[in-house]
């Protein structure tokens, strides 16, 4: 059974989320503070975290950072009242897969959770079946092993960064719109903020390009999208 960890210090909200998720067939546990969240993430190994940012003991951003240091697989959906752009960008850069602000629509939240978990499952099945190795410039990408190297040195990519890179690689030389990338990687057409793709692409350039300000491989076509050049 798919496991979801709800990290929320509002007990009524946490219980309400747990009840609705259990109705949808998930196994659910609750952590009321950041320290307990990290303990459960390590021992219970959930498939997805629904993570509040304003938490006792350890705040949600620190929980996310520490989780990603040891775990790139678990999906993370931030659910918070902090809706300013700086928090959204920071959360996504730290490795969150989606960001939802309170108040929220329950049906939309459940749909987002389902989509994240579905895409995680599809990606794992594709890895198990084997996938090609791509090369461009001094970059090598082993899709099956989820390994990326630059000039022989390993490069650590977060899950969404890796997924975006694979989408560009599989359509190398073609212009891929932001809308197509949103659909392919996040599963939404327009319901996540428009800068999400740009933020992740900036991180890819920072990690892979020799000069991120003058990218040679991950090219922006203004008003059209992105293209990967060999």
Automatic annotation (TrEMBL):
Annotated DNA-binding residue span(s): 131-230
Segments forming domain OmpR/PhoB-type: 131-230
Keyword annotations of the record: DNA-binding, Phosphoprotein, Transcription, Transcription regulation, Two-component regulatory system
Residue ranges crossing the lipid bilayer per the database entry: none
Response regulatory domain sequence ranges: 3-117
Superkingdom, taxonomy of origin: Bacteria
Residues that bear 4-aspartylphosphate: 52
Protein name as annotated: Response regulator transcription factor
